From TrEMBL:
Domain X8: 363-448
Topology of the protein relative to the lipid bilayer: Lipid-anchor; GPI-anchor
One Pfam short name: X8
Protein known as: glucan endo-1,3-beta-D-glucosidase
Signal peptide (from-to): 1-21
Annotated family: Belongs to the glycosyl hydrolase 17 family.
Sequence intervals crossing the membrane: 478-497
Length: 498
């Protein structure tokens, strides 16, 4: 009997700590779509591959994105949009149809691992709160019926504003108004082995504290021991707001007698630009926060309360969303602009592989997708002529001939010129048809300038256009007024610098 009891206790311990044993801590990224020039799904996936981002969260279940993500191995969290929750929470069959169309139709080619049922529902759409539990259960039932319940977790992201008295963390508790929803929700998460999803924004905690929270404490910067925050009840020491907020969630769950549901941070980040009344929304602070956050998560040290439990986190967000409503800061949480150009170069030395091509400042010059093919051809002609780029590798039978289209050939020529000019400002423009990117365009035996020639190339894609480049090896036959003007400007420039 004693041995059997010991075995039961061991199994309980293993269940509680399953997240630390079965899953590695990961950094993912949220992909918002409120951009005036939203990249095509294939471009989004190319950027994810180049940055070695293996975990993404979508705010919907967009079919184009799910198809583009197929056969990539990227782990995908999809979302039931808030506006669909009432229907799903009131009808089991509606939930089953949603899962059939958005999950079963794509899995396993698309590696869907998580379904977020809504986003910050209790604070954003409190009128939907009464059906939230049913929505969770109906989605879960549909997964069970499809034999996918073991592969896909179901939960709902909540705002950290749900947690009251968050410091010291040991005193934290949930807004009791929502206990009728939170208690059954936590029981659901327990019974299904899912996560407590939490959006954590130290930026907002910092600006709302009126100077009580030091900026360095919000940014994960090293603090002297006498500046660390100490929980007087547990004597746990906190060196950053992020850990304190995650532990506040653990203590708030414990206040409702739930101690074995791990926290997954579904959003966290820092804006790179703000209005005049938000001076700390700037690129330096955004870089510092996100670089430190990534290192902190990937060290797998957990939090002071649970040092052995990973706190995987999705960064908010991949792209700046220029169509977002609200202050300027709302539009500037992205790591990249719509062309895939980094807003800032993350400082991630020795942090693993994710986003690490930014750490060496490897940038390339690529043809912009969707630009006029004649403009692109003219710019290609100039690069291979007055621009003095050796375009021999683009000839038929040579390493960079395939794919044989003007966009691919222009990208090679643009990038070569860009590196010949030492990546100087303005050397990747070509009258607006080129853009800087961190996606390495090398492919097969076609190695672009600036690439790692030792075989550790990042995955990249070449922009493809239907318009074919001239089949003749003489690539300088087509010179319109645009390229002639550029040739004259280039010749003058070369004469000056020579």
């Amino acid at each position: 009997m004693a041995k059997r009891m010991a075995l039961v206790l061991l199994l309980m311990v293993l269940t509680v700590s399953a997240v630390s044993a079965d899953e590695e801590a990961f950094i993912g990224v949220n992909i918002g779509t409120e951009l005036s020039d939203m990249p095509h799904p294939t471009q989004v996936v190319a950027l994810l591959k180049a940055q070695q981002l293996r975990n993404v969260r979508l705010y919907d279940a967009d079919r184009g994105m799910l198809l583009a993500l197929a056969n990539t191995g990227i782990r995908v969290a999809i979302t039931v949009p808030n506006e669909q929750l009432l229907g799903i929470g009131q009808s089991n069959s509606t939930a089953a149809n949603w899962v059939a169309q958005n999950v079963v139709a794509h899995y396993p080619a698309t590696n869907i691992t998580t379904i977020c049922v809504g986003s910050e529902v209790l604070t954003a759409m409190p009128n939907v709160a009464p059906v939230l539990i049913n929505a969770l259960k109906y989605i879960q039932s549909a997964l069970v019926a499809s034999n996918l319940a073991r592969q896909i977790k179901v939960s709902t992201p909540l705002s950290s504003s749900m947690i009251l008295d968050s410091f010291p963390p040991s005193k934290a508790f949930f807004n009791q108004t929502w206990n009728p929803v939170l208690v059954p929700m936590l029981k659901f998460l327990q019974s299904t082995g899912s996560y407590f999803m939490l959006n954590v924004y130290p930026y907002f905690d910092y600006i709302q504290s009126n100077g009580v929270i030091p900026l360095d404490y919000a940014l994960f910067k090293p603090l002297p021991a006498n500046k660390e925050a100490v929980d007087s009840n547990t004597l746990l020491r906190y060196t950053n707001v992020f850990d304190a907020m995650v532990d506040a969630a653990y203590f708030a769950m414990a206040d409702l007698n739930v101690t074995n549901v791990p926290v997954l941070v579904t959003e966290s980040g820092w804006p790179s630009k703000g209005d005049s009344n938000e001076p700390d929304a700037n690129a330096e602070n955004a870089n510092t926060y996100n670089s430190n956050l990534i290192r902190h998560v990937l060290k797998k040290t957990g939090t002071p309360k649970h040092p052995s439990i990973a706190v995987s986190t999705y960064i908010y967000e991949l792209y700046n969303e220029d169509m977002k409503e609200g202050p300027l800061s709302e539009k500037n949480w992205g790591l990249f602009d719509s062309d895939g150009k980094p807003i800032y170069i993350l400082r991630l030395t020795d942090s693993g592989s994710v986003l690490t091509n930014d750490t060496t400042n490897q940038t390339y010059c690529s043809a912009k997708p969707g630009v006029d093919s004649k403009m692109l051809q003219a710019a290609l002609d100039w690069a291979c002529g007055p621009g003095k780029v050796d375009c021999a590798p683009l000839l038929q039978g040579q390493a960079c001939y395939e794919p044989d289209n003007v966009a691919a050939h222009a990208t090679y020529a643009f990038d070569t010129y860009y590196h010949q000019m030492g990546r100087a400002p303005g050397s990747c423009d070509f009258n607006g048809v080129a853009t800087i990117t961190t996606t390495n365009p090398s492919h097969g035996s076609c190695i672009f300038p600036g690439s790692d020639r030792n075989g550790s190339l990042l995955n990249g894609t070449i922009p493809v256009m239907d318009t074919k480049s001239a089949s003749s090896p003489a690539m300088f036959e087509y010179m319109n007024a645009f390229s002639i003007a550029n040739a004259l400007i280039g010749a003058l420039w070369i004469a000056v610098v020579s």
